[in-house]
Design goal:
Length: about 625
């Protein structure tokens, strides 16, 4: 572990200016008194998996949705937290660095000290390994002073990013008991919050008093569902990458002779690439979700890119910019199958050097077809969650190589008569992870920190701090606590030929919704992006002035206020109950029964799985 973690930083002028920025809070969190309203019991995000999740999490499944409101009017199912006995809380980073993470801790600290100055906040140095080893530092205002509104995770650092094995879970429980913690707050993405759910279940089973809470912080934006509209860090990372892409676009059109292949970090889902495409308008963007839905092969993708190159050449344009997500390679059917075979060999402790000789005949043939640099990268040791190291696989170079070969073939056969194809490749990965967080991420993270303290004070275990209606101003944000099990589902995976499907309840990465309005916007503009050099220059992150409070385009386009919609539904149900009290006329009762039957039929149809497939948008 780095001995410098948590040490005071020497700040530049810009950093000092940012450290003075005070994040905004919604009205419900601005005082020490908060109204807690308990909603309905929750199910799993996929109702078909509810029984499986309930069996795996008997202690924490089906808990109620909890809203945090201003302490004005009181309902029968609400309580106001007035007394604030001293509490002890631990916090750790578990996941890749994401801008805004420090502000979660700052929000926790300020909320705890406002409630009771004797509260103690302990940070685990070195992430999960620090948790197992009981390595802590007390978080004070002096410690935080040079980390407020700053990038990175270097206040506490991070390590293995997993609390999964029996030994790890027992070590975590031992630490929490020995330190007499009332709450343990885990800051991270889908994997870390899945681990938090399992930890909460184990703590409840063993009557450990520590309440486990998750916070949605990940740059990839893939922890997204009805309750979580976006994650801390996503806005900042997309703004930084969009500036880099727009710079590349202007460089391409200036030189007029290169195609830039840009791969963006973001895990298995394509949220970062999608948002950056909307912000910077590259000529082409290929999303993994499109490829998976249309089952495009590697060579079909290459041909589509080459068709785009030819279409631009017909207009006298020999430059362009293509953006892809790092998870694209796993979305290509034959590449996914190859990577699954390699994964199985890793699980069976086959060494990297021996893997090629252990592949099945078809996989060996595909492996041999690929360039040597891709072969080396595909067999690299896996991540902590047994997945491929996507950040280490140069998919953009693979595409550029194959496109160049195909353009040579088309030229030789006389089908392409333009200039020679030339490419330049980039991978924008960790460049954005340590950036100063945007105002939106600074505010969002700080608010989530405050919500965590309310969750601990309410005595809730196995919950995630959430905020909805994020596209609106901060004073209209809705603050809540959602059971982690409500976000879980089971997906079945085949681990090799003839293998039995296996699966366990976890929070899965959420792919792009190809039925969403934001995707329709991208499809509508695809042809213009391809041919018109409709480049957009968002510039660097603005902290003051007109552009300081912009939010992700995908967030502002969609209508995602799920908690607000639940409130509207509840209001209608209350009105119906009022009208249909015993004694109402038979006509009203019959009308209600008929209407309810129709609603029930409609909802049954809508709840059934859809088999319809959406076409991939085309370049022409």
């Amino acid at each position: 572990m780095n001995a410098d973690l948590g040490s005071p930083r020497e700040l530049t002028g810009l950093q000092r200016r940012r450290a003075l920025y005070q994040p905004e809070l919604p009205p419900c969190l601005q005082g020490t008194r908060v109204r807690v309203e308990f909603g309905e019991s929750t199910t799993s995000i996929d109702p078909k998996c509810a029984d499986i999740v309930a069996q795996a999490f008997p202690q924490t499944f089906g808990q109620k949705l909890v809203h945090f409101l201003e302490p004005n009017s009181m309902a029968s199912d609400t309580q106001v937290i007035k007394e604030h006995p001293p509490i002890r809380v631990g916090v750790l980073f578990s996941g890749r660095q994401s801008p805004g993470g420090h502000n979660v801790i700052w929000g926790i600290h300020d909320a705890m000290k406002a409630r009771n100055p004797h509260n103690v906040l302990l940070g685990f140095v070195g992430g999960t390994e620090g948790l197992f080893a009981k390595k802590t530092m007390e978080i004070t205002n002096d410690v935080l002073s040079s980390y407020k509104n700053q990038g990175g995770f270097d206040l506490l650092g991070r390590t293995v990013d997993q609390i999964r094995t029996k030994e790890q879970v027992n070590a975590a429980m031992s630490t929490c008991c020995d330190l007499s913690l009332d709450g343990l707050i885990i800051i991270g993405g889908v994997t870390s919050n899945s681990d938090a759910a399992q930890l909460a279940e184990t703590f409840a089973k063993h009557n450990c008093k520590t309440k486990v809470i998750g916070v949605p912080v990940t740059l990839s934006g893939d922890l997204k569902n009805q309750f979580v509209e976006t994650t801390v860090g996503f806005d900042t990372v997309c703004k930084v990458n969009s500036q880099l892409i727009s710079n590349v676009c202007l460089d391409a059109v200036s030189a007029g002779k290169y195609y830039y292949f840009v791969r963006l970090m973001g895990g298995k889902a394509s949220h970062v690439a999608f948002e950056c495409a909307l912000q910077s308008h590259p000529n082409m963007v290929i999303l993994g979700e499109e490829v998976a839905l249309s089952k495009l092969t590697l060579m079909e993708i290459i041909n589509k890119i080459c068709d785009g190159v030819e279409a631009r050449a017909a207009q006298g344009k020999y430059h362009g910019v293509l953006v892809i997500p790092e998870g694209l390679i796993e979305s290509i059917p034959e590449m996914y199958a190859l990577m699954q075979e390699i994964n199985n060999l890793h699980i069976n402790n086959v060494t990297e050097d021996e893997i090629p000789s252990q592949l099945s005949p078809w996989a060996a043939a595909l492996f041999k077809f690929l360039p040597p640099f891709i072969r080396r990268e595909l067999v690299l040791h896996q991540e902590s969650d047994n997945s491929a190291q996507l950040s280490q696989i140069d998919t953009e170079q693979l595409l550029a190589h194959l496109v160049e070969e195909e353009m040579k073939r088309r030229t030789k056969e006389g089908n392409y008569k333009g200039r020679k194809f030339s490419s330049v490749c980039h991978f924008f990965g960790s460049q954005a992870r340590g950036s100063l967080p945007s105002n939106f991420d600074s505010n969002y993270a700080y608010v989530l920190g405050h919500i965590c303290v309310q969750i601990v004070a309410t005595g809730l275990n196995g919950y995630m701090a959430t905020v909805t209606n994020l596209k609106d101003s901060t004073n209209k944000w809705r603050c809540a606590a959602v059971p982690l099990t409500a976000m879980m589902s089971v997906r079945r995976h085949l681990r090799g030929p003839g293998a039995v499907p296996i699966g366990r309840p976890v929070i899965h990465p959420s792919p792009i919704d190809l039925k969403a309005e934001s995707y329709a916007v991208l499809r509508e503009k695809a042809s213009s992006f391809l041919l018109d050099d409709f480049y957009r220059t968002p510039g660097g992150i603005q902290f003051e002035g007109p552009g300081a409070n912009t939010k992700p385009i995908t967030l502002t386009i969609e209508d995602q206020d799920y908690l607000g919609d639940i409130e509207i539904l509840q209001d209608y149900l209350n009105k119906v109950r009022t009208i249909l009290k015993p004694g109402c006329s038979r006509e009203i009762l019959k009308a209600a029964i008929s209407s309810m039957a129709s609603v029930n039929d409609v909802l049954k149809v809508m709840s059934a799985p859809l088999n319809a497939e959406l076409p991939l948008y085309h370049f022409n």
